[in-house]
Amino acid sequence: MMAGERIPKEQLYLSFTRHNPAVITSGPGGLNGSIKGVGFVPKEEYAQEFLELFMEHINKGQCQSYAREGLALLYRLIYSEEARERLDFNRLGSLELACKHTWANILAEPKATLLFYEPPSTSYEVRCRVEIHREGVYHALVNAMHDAYHGPEPSCWSERPVYIFIIEEIYDNSVTPQGFGRKIYP
C-alpha cells in the first residue's frame, strides 16, 4: 500500500480489524464492548522524539497530501521493520472519543480485555491493565498519531483522554488446534 499498489477492498477492510479491537470492560457503565483504534507506542525514551516528528507534520496544516504524508510518517515510525526496536510491544495506545461506558468503567476499574478478530477464524484476547493520560507526552503523542492521518485537531486534545493498555496476558482464541483459549503470553 505504501508503494502505491492497489489492494483488493476486501483485504483492506479485513486489515482494519488488526487496528480496531473490541475493548471489553465492566463497571458502573455496565458490561461493555466498544470498537476502538489501537496502536503500539514508542518506548518511553523515544516518546518525545516521536511527538516532535508528528507535531512537525501536524503543524504544516491540512492540505491535499496531508493524509498520505501522515500515513508515510506512521509507517516509518510505527509499522516499518526499522521501527521495531523503538516500540514498546507491551503497550498499546488509544483515544477515548466518547467518554461514555468504557470511560466510566475504566475510571472505576482500570482493566480491559482487547478482543481482536479477523474473519474467518483468527482471534486473540489481550488482557490489560489501563493507564489514563489526560496530559503529558503520551497524551499528546497518541492524539498526534491519530491526527497525523485523520486531520490536525490539537484544539480538541484536551477533550480526548488517552488509554495506555499495558498487556498482562494474551490468549489465542482462534478456531485452530493451537487456539481455543490457549494462553500464549506470558
Summary, kept brief:
With 186 residues, this protein is an alpha+beta fold. It is built from five helices and eight strands; from the N terminus they run αβββααβαββαββ. It has one domain: Pnp Oxidase, Chain A, CATH 2.30.110.
User: CATH topology, what is it called?
Assistant: Pnp Oxidase, Chain A
Write down how many β-strands occur, each being a DSSP E stretch of 2 or more residues.
8
Write down the overall geometry: globular
Which structural class do the helices and strands define?
Answer: alpha+beta
How much strand content do the residues show? 25-35%
Total number of domains:
1
Averaged pLDDT: 92
What does this entry look like structurally?
- This protein is α+β, with helices and mostly antiparallel strands and 186 residues long.
- The chain has a single domain (38-110, 118-185), classed as Pnp Oxidase, Chain A.
- It has helices at residues 9-16, 44-59, 66-79, 101-108, 137-150; strands at 22-25, 32-35, 39-42, 87-95, 111-118, 122-133, 162-172, 182-185.
- Strands 1, 2, 3, 4, 5, 6, 7 and 8 form an eight-stranded antiparallel sheet that branches.
- A hairpin with a 6-residue loop joins strand 1 (22-25) and strand 2 (32-35).
- Helix 2 (44-59) crosses helix 5 (137-150).
- The protein starts with 8 loop residues before the first helix and ends with a strand.
- The mean pLDDT is 92.
